[in-house]
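Justification of resources, computational component.

The compute hours requested in this renewal are based largely on the per-chain cost of generating structure records like the one below. Each record pairs the submitted sequence with a full structure-token output. That output is archived, and it is also reused by downstream analysis tasks.
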Amino acid sequence: MKLINKFVSITIILAMLFSMCVVATVSAESTFYSVYANEIGGKIELEDAEIKIENGTTFKVYVYADMNSVEKAKVTAFHLLGSVSSNLEIVDSGFAANEAILNLEATDTPAADIPADYQDFETMLHNSKTTGTTIDFTAVVFKNTENNAIDVDEDGFAKLIWIELKAKGNGTYKINLDDSFVKYDFTTEDTKKLCMTGVSFSKSSLPMGDDGTTVPSGTVTGGGGYISGKKDGKIHDVEVDKIDDATVTIDEENKIIKIEVPEGTDLANLSFTFDYDGKEISVKNGEIVDVTEPIEVKVTGTNNKETTYSLEVAHKVAGPDDAEEGIFADVELGRWSYDMIKDMYDEGIIHGYGKDENGKIIIKPDDEISREEAAKISVSAYGLDVSAYAETTFDDNDLIDSWAVPYVAAGAAHPNKMVKGYPDNTFKPFIHITREELVALVISTFGFGIDENPEIKFADADEMTWSAPYISKAVNLGIVVGYEDGTFRPKQYVTREEALTEFDRALIIYKSLTAMAE
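The structure output for this chain reads:
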């Protein structure tokens, strides 16, 4: 997980450049960089605007940051986070800015193999974990290399990265950036850091006939831009970016698009992704617009004629039967732990115990969690590959459920020693885990370290014979708290709900810290 494992100097410089960012990102609730007040947009464009994409096609896109709002001519660092739709696969990615900025390869580069001009770090380091369907790309320009910073073009855009993708099916291809990070100066003030939002790409595949073959009439390409043949422009669908619960109705006859969004949505600060036929559209995908009043959206067809739609956005009016429902059968929406448990479910760390008769997921939040169940959550949250582990070295290996063995074994073998046994070399898989054991497991899982000189202010601190350094660290990080009576109750068993919320808090902190360290 380190950009260049053998070069401590690089790690230190990275830490200095982003030291202010780490503090800010830990407090973000859902994304790393939504805490930054200064927001900018961007765009994603096809390298070949004329390419026709269908199942099996490989193509490349470029990601740009829109620097017009800050009127700056350089970019010195960025961290892009996002994803692509399931019908796309990321093949490769790379740094797309000035060719003069050289690429220092990541991981395990022997010192003898590094050219002399790299020794002064006069370059931009970049590290991509962009693979599968996940976009995760970090880049940093070292100080005193301003001439090699990323230039902003005459239109006010900075070209950051390229992504090569392969279409794995037909349908609508989508690329979305989450709140990402852009920095335009070498200083560390928050005013130099920008939250890059509303950047998306959407296009439809080549039309398919009933027999599964390509219909030769053409396709939307070019970031929602071009269709072969001489046709009128047409909007097929609209998505409201970052709003999951929006209702869209398109009246094609009268050319009216009506969208309802949840109450409280800021209508003056929305962006949209349009699925359309035509050469261009007047409201670009991802562009921030004010729709407190209806606006016109014009689509230029391949016949060069404009088709004008009226885009009307309003808040939903909640009726007696319109109350939002949660996805869980036994964790109601609004419960203190709901959002954190949903985070763990959405991340694929937990899957629940099947579904009830209404199709809702069963969590069993009040059940006390066993040591083997906690080990599975730990290893899953950290993202370890358990496929190579078939047995553990614990003396009671035969007592561990078969489904749990790979997780227990992988966690015990990992350098973090996230899974530990007892002094008699047993694991005791069925015993319920205590609060102090869970805290130690969480802290060890993510390698947070311990407080060597812990200051425990809980009334029952004398009960923490071995766990005080772990509990102190967890309290300082905000992972755990005590009870209203001033106790911590280290020997008390932990419920699934409590375990999941602790892991969720820890995972958010871990992601924030590692994103900046890399």
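Helices lie at 8-26, 338-346, 371-382, 405-413, 435-445, 468-477, 496-517. The longest strand covers residues 157-167.
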